[in-house]
Design brief:
This protein is α/β, with parallel strands linked by helices and 290 residues long. Helix content is 38%, strand content 17%. It is built from 10 helices and 10 strands. The two termini are 25 Å apart.
Length: 290
């Protein structure tokens, strides 16, 4: 397999074949992210992709394939359909094909086109919601509004895809912490994904958000302030059936819960840690990572 640059994938794709069909991120402007800053976005040629697919076909049975890099949904429809057909024809045992997606590229596809992709095997999309606040979405240069994010999430779900969304604690700093949490809960409720994950902001040198932080423009909550945001998001989100996690390495307190079944228990546990102010119950700073 030929990869260009650093390849990232969701934790749940640890045992998937990583097939790089694009290089970099089609948006690549988010102020908190440095992942693809060193890559110029391009869609790989069909010849490059076919060579990797044929190689993977010689590995034996592969159940899961993850399409890298940042957003395979940006690939024109007919070419993406050809890639999905090729995967199914050449790789034995594929049960799930998944990818990162962003709201802009999802909205470029019609509902009918998304359903076509689902029928060809693209069964799971990871969507970065980040925040439900329009003011913060503009500030972090996400490139979409909250309503566009909701529409994208709903389209993916209506197409029959499994949807896993992420939000980021701390994006509003101290001043907009409550707005961030409440609006994020509103958007999560409106989308109603099967999976949702909360990460905690990691402020990385070289990103615009780092410059804001250094200049005092984005004072951050303390560890328990992040947990208050998390508690507020869970409290005010209404899911029909969602597996909610906050067990990423960036988080201070690992959470795994089935919502709404575990809602009261999870909120009580988070609030108990906040009230105790026991830092010993939290992940140490030196162990936090992306």
């Amino acid at each position: 397999m030929k990869y260009e640059g650093m390849i990232i994938r969701p934790p749940s794709e640890a045992y998937s074949l990583l097939l790089q069909v694009t290089v970099g991120c089609s948006h690549n402007r988010c102020t908190f992210c440095e992942t693809f800053k060193g890559k110029k976005f391009r869609i790989k040629s069909m010849e490059e992709i076919r060579e990797d697919v044929l190689e993977a076909g010689r590995y034996g049975r592969i159940e899961k394939v993850f399409l890298c890099d940042g957003d395979a949904l940006i690939i024109p429809q007919e070419r993406l359909k050809e890639i999905l057909r090729m995967i199914k024809a050449e790789i034995k045992g594929v049960e799930r094909i998944s990818t990162y997606g962003n709201a802009k590229s999802a909205l470029r596809k019609t509902p009918e086109e998304l359903k076509e992709l689902r029928d060809l095997g693209l069964s799971m999309v990871y969507l970065g919601v980040e925040t439900g606040s329009d003011a913060l979405l503009q500030k972090i240069q996400k490139g979409v509004t909250a309503e566009q994010t909701i529409e994208a999430g709903r389209r993916l779900r209506q197409a029959g895809m499994i949807l896993s969304v992420t939000v980021i604690l701390g994006l509003g700093g101290v001043d907009q912490s409550e707005e961030h949490a409440m609006e994020t809960a509103r958007v999560l409720t409106a989308i109603d994904p099967q999976y949702a994950g909360a990460l905690t902001l990691m402020i990385l040198p070289g990103t615009p958000i780092y410059d804001d932080y250094q200049q005092g423009k984005l004072p951050q909550p303390d560890q328990f302030g992040y947990l208050r945001e998390l508690s507020m998001i869970i409290s005010h989100s209404q899911f029909s059936d969602c597996f909610f996690t906050a067990n990423h390495a960036s988080n201070y307190l690992p959470i795994r819960a089935r919502l709404p079944q575990d809602k009261e228990r999870t909120i009580a546990m988070i609030n108990q840690v906040i009230e105790s102010a026991d830092k010993g119950a939290l992940r140490p700073e030196y162990l936090r990572a992306l």
